[in-house]
Amino acid sequence: MASLALSASGVNLNKAVSGKFDDFRGGFSFSFGSVTTNDSSFAKKRNTAIVSIATQPPPGVVGNPRTGKNDETKKLAAWTSVKQERWEGELTVEGELPLWLNGTYLRNGPGLWHVGDYNFRHLFDGYATLVRLRFENGHLVMGHRQLESDAYIAAKKNNKLCYREFSEVPKQDNFLAYIGELANLFSGASLTDNANTGVVHLGDGRVVCLTETQKGSIIIDPDTLDTLGKFEYSDTLGGLIHSAHPIVTDSEFLTLLPDLINPGYLVVRMEPGTNERKVIGRVDCRNGPAPGWVHSFPVTEHYVVVPEMPLRYCAQNLLKAEPTPLYKFEWHPESKAFVHVMCKASGKVVASVEVPLFVTFHFINAYEQTDEDGRVIGVVADCCEHSADTTILDKLRLNSLRSYSGEEDVLPDARVGRFVIPFDGSPNGKLEAALNPDEHGRGMDMCSINPDFLGKPYRYAYACGAVRPCNFPNTLTKLDLVDKKAKNWYDEGAVPSEPFFVARPGATEEDDGVVISMISDKNGEGYALVLDGKSFEEIARAKFPYGLPYGLHGCWVPKKSP
Ligand SMILES: CC(=O)/C=C/C=C(C)/C=C/C1=C(C)CCCC1(C)C
Ligand SMILES: CC(/C=C/C=O)=C\C=C\C=O
Ligand SMILES: [Fe+2]
């Protein structure tokens, strides 16, 4: 059992933070909260530790009733709309940032959950808030800014929801308008372009914010967070939706386009410097009325792994004005679950197996298994698996996230689900926990790996786990998938965002680097946190001028060499 001691040092942000504000003025009811930076008791309030979850008694978690809008009370900022349109300034760093850490960590996520007096219902509905941490020679400059999607601009202008978000549908004044809106749904015109899920750094240097609608692909300037315009796909592949998480490397962009008419998926590839996706191949669904939801998928060095989850897109739910318990999806256990493997070079499906039922948002990584002669005999694919329980989707409703009492254990169990897909023609693949889920408190999501190990055998992953009771993953967790152990960082009452691994230039060991996260703490404040990739101990933190909303996924933009 490990329960490591705490360290603390003070900071007075009144002196430390030099910030630039750009108050939002318009039809939106943003509150113009003044920035509360004078908090010399910050250090005293600190209570963080690396804990062994299996042996630590569950700590109390602070209550969190929130409205959709900001107020000045000190509550968790994670589920609260961002205070203002933008801010930029240097932060005071406690501890020491490695001097090799030069570049920008960008994080995207839904950060504004109301239009006028209307409050959105689901975490995924919020308008995209971009946060930028620029690391330079031991210094850290933070900036945040709203993404200027058409959906956001229209909401600001008209003071009402104008596009279909994840769970929200614009209200129509009359029957004719209702019919018009439905027609626009089929053409895609009424779908949101609110690219609030992730942000990727393409091999050609462009930085693109993404969501699950294809029109929600928006180019930004990583230095200013300016919205530069739509990323227009120049091909004629059509379709309205894609996986929220493409696989992006210096040499390619791979994604899946679900086909809702003839259930299946197109596997497509785009080269740096182009906007044209080319088809690698097509996977036909094995069963069910529609393709399974593909929020993400993994790749190995030579194969694309296509999951067919029994949580399937649902055309009827798409047409409904009010959200259903599974939103735009439907659970079809009778349709079973499958995993398909496509060869990247030939587009041929080399394996298609039935697997146990599963629910996942995020794949972690995948790799090839070889025999003693080096022949590929199968693939292993790991994901954050929610025990085939779809209730996780409804647990991400803002009411549920905001109304946590701190006492009940609300978060459904999750694990590192490891698929083993044989290439020998067997009809079934395996799905088992890669390590005992008690190692990470049976919470598991929001993962990253060392990108040099993408598609290759790997040992370490970073994710969020749980110290229970809780209603959302509340630890940063380093998973050792070889020793089957986890190290957990925990700050009582806080919500950390996805731990993002940045490798030290020239590193030869997989975990030689740092892990960056942004924390919403129980006092309503927040800070950037940098952990050592190996020891998983804190090496630096920097307090934000005010707490920021929860963010989903990020990317690293290395500093350009002069
Ligand atoms: C934030 C996140 O992780 C997921 C966002 C998903 C969105 C915005 C999905 C939107 C959709 C529609 C507006 C209609 C079509 C179906 C679907 C792709 C779910
Ligand atoms: C926040 C989340 C999914 C985000 C998608 O991009 C999942 C959280 C799961 C909790 O266990
Ligand atoms: Fe995601």
Automatic annotation (TrEMBL):
CC cofactor note: Binds 1 Fe(2+) ion per subunit.
One family name in Pfam for this protein: RPE65
This protein's record includes keyword Metal-binding: yes
Biological process terms in GO annotation: carotene catabolic process
Annotated positions binding Fe cation: 245, 295, 362, 553
Keyword entries, A-Z: Dioxygenase, Iron, Metal-binding, Oxidoreductase
InterPro entries the record matches: Carotenoid_Oase
GO MF assignments: carotenoid dioxygenase activity; metal ion binding
Co-factor(s): Fe(2+)
One GO CC term, this protein: chloroplast
PANTHER family given in the database record: BETA-CAROTENE DIOXYGENASE, CAROTENOID ISOMEROOXYGENASE
Family per similarity comment: Belongs to the carotenoid oxygenase family.
Protein name: Uncharacterized protein
Source species of the chain: Daucus carota subsp. sativus
